[in-house]
Amino acid sequence: MSNSWIRYLTPWIAPIFVIIWSTGFIIARYGMPHAEPMTFLSMRFLGVLICMIPIVLLWKAPWPRQSQIIHIAIAGILLQAGYLGGVWAAVREGMSAGLTALIVGLQPILTALLASWVAEKVRPVQWLGLVIGLLGVGLVVWAKIVMIGFSDLSFIFIIIALLSITAGTLYQKKYCPQFDLRTGSVIQFAASAIVCVPLMMMFETREVAWVPELIFSLLWSIFALSIGASSLLFVMIRHGAATKVTSLMYLTPPTTALMAWFLFNEPITWAIGLGIALTMGAVLMVNKASSGK
Predict the structure, then answer these.
(1) Phi-psi region of 259 (alpha: psi -120 to 50; beta: other; left: phi over 0)
(2) HEC profile for the chain?
(3) Along the 293 residues of the chain, how does pLDDT read in single tens digits?
(4) Residues 6+ apart with CB under 8 A from 15
(5) Whether 278 contacts 133, CB under 8 Å
(6) Do residues 105 and 261 lie in contact, with contact meaning Cβ atoms separated by under 8 Å?
(7) How far apart are CA 173 and CA 170, in angstroms?
(8) For the chain, what are the domain ranges?
């Protein structure tokens, strides 16, 4: 009965996962005025640990081998501290939520190309997809500069985020592709906290405005994003829906753009719409080519 219900709900779990994932960029914009990036992320990572450690102890989840722990920690630092730190810092410096999501949305292209470069020759259609994707991002960046502009520092931060999530994805795939989600999450978030807390102490004021917006952003980040989205992903992979996640992930930037338009009145012009379409088409093209479809 349980399995039948899971099979029934699986088609709905994938789009729910994408919607929750897309809110990460919105939450960054929503909570940013009330806490600095490393301060917020330190609280988020510590909050996840407070929730996950009792779960690990209660269910007696298996821990990875000692040789794997370092690899899991490195992947976690790249995927959590590097990626989220770059996103939050970029938004803090004035980059819009929609543009942030679009640039990070190039990650599947870079991952596919670098993975293919390691394993086999890159196909011409993949290079074509990369060029189209860069044109799409360039079009959106140009449109944003014309409308509101953004700082060079915010662009540097979002590139750090893009490179971090790409490197983290490849590193985890190569050195620690399989581990228990519960204990692995504890290792990854603990390692990320070890990175973020010193940065918070050295470079930030650590002032937090405990307003409802900040509290909601923090709770949503802990439970919906760090715990909820990860759990949904685990369920989908376990029940054979991982391919649907891969394809639906390409909808994250346009979903974020629509949310930002609705919540923050971030405009969507024809240039931005065309850029989003080009970028998402390019990501899909490269992904299909890399999977041999």
Answers:
(1) alpha
(2) CHHHHHHHHHHHHHHHHHHHHHHHHHHHHHHHHHCCHHHHHHHHHHHHHHHHHHHHHHHCCCCCCHHHHHHHHHHHHHHHHHHHHHHHHHHHCCCCHHHHHHHHCCHHHHHHHHHHHHHCCCCHHHHHHHHHHHHHHHHHHHHHHHHCCCCHHHHHHHHHHHHHHHHHHHHHHHHCCCCCHHHHHHHHHHHHHHHHHHHHHHHCCCCCCCCHHHHHHHHHHHHHHHHHHHHHHHHHHHCCCHHHHHHHHHHHHHHHHHHHHHHHCCCCCHHHHHHHHHHHHHHHHHHHHHCCC
(3) 445 655 666 667 778 888 898 899 999 989 989 999 999 999 999 999 999 999 999 999 999 999 899 999 999 999 999 999 999 999 999 888 888 888 888 887 787 777 665 565 667 887 788 788 878 888 877 877 776 666 789 999 999 999 999 898 888 888 888 888 899 999 999 999 999 999 999 999 999 999 999 999 999 999 999 988 877 776 665 554 444 455 566 778 888 888 888 888 888 888 888 888 888 888 777 767 666 65
(4) 248
(5) yes
(6) no
(7) 5
(8) 2-290
| Six-digit token string for 141 | 């960046």
